[in-house]
From TrEMBL:
<dbReference type="InterPro" id="IPR036388">
    <property type="entry name" value="WH-like_DNA-bd_sf"/>
</dbReference>
<protein>
    <submittedName>
        <fullName>MarR family transcriptional regulator</fullName>
    </submittedName>
</protein>
<feature type="domain" description="HTH marR-type">
    <location>
        <begin position="1"/>
        <end position="151"/>
    </location>
</feature>
<dbReference type="InterPro" id="IPR036390">
    <property type="entry name" value="WH_DNA-bd_sf"/>
</dbReference>
<dbReference type="InterPro" id="IPR039422">
    <property type="entry name" value="MarR/SlyA-like"/>
</dbReference>
<dbReference type="Pfam" id="PF12802">
    <property type="entry name" value="MarR_2"/>
</dbReference>
<dbReference type="InterPro" id="IPR000835">
    <property type="entry name" value="HTH_MarR-typ"/>
</dbReference>
Amino acid sequence: MSNIEKLISIRNFTSEHHKGLVSLIFVGNWIISKHQNFFKEYDITMQQFNILRILRGQHPKSASINTLKERMLDKMSDVSRLVERLRKAELVERKSCEADRRAVDVKISTKGLDLLKEIDEKLDKLEEPLKQSLSDKEMVQLNKLLDKILSSYE
């Protein structure tokens, strides 16, 4: 009996594809849950963390709300609302775009950069089980397989 069969008490998958899909969903949700609990310690969500990481990659330049939407991992996020919460926490700065008054430019603050630095130091520990369970070669293989799945949904 495989781990997924033990964890969710299913013994008769309709196919290996069905078992694989259920396993992907289960593992994905499990990883999300671990990350959500981790980020609670810093009083931010995974989506807010994603925005901060995008902005750090843009630093010292700013990014538009549309740029953030395009680069978000969670495409269902309300980016404007997330940015506003980050602004209230003084983790980002936002201002009207000089070229287009309807657009908003967002830039990570020093406080936001400091928070990411603090998180980065502990994030490795959260990702340690993945590093222990898969070798570098296996991780390359997993990435290729996941990319193959993604390309089939385009």
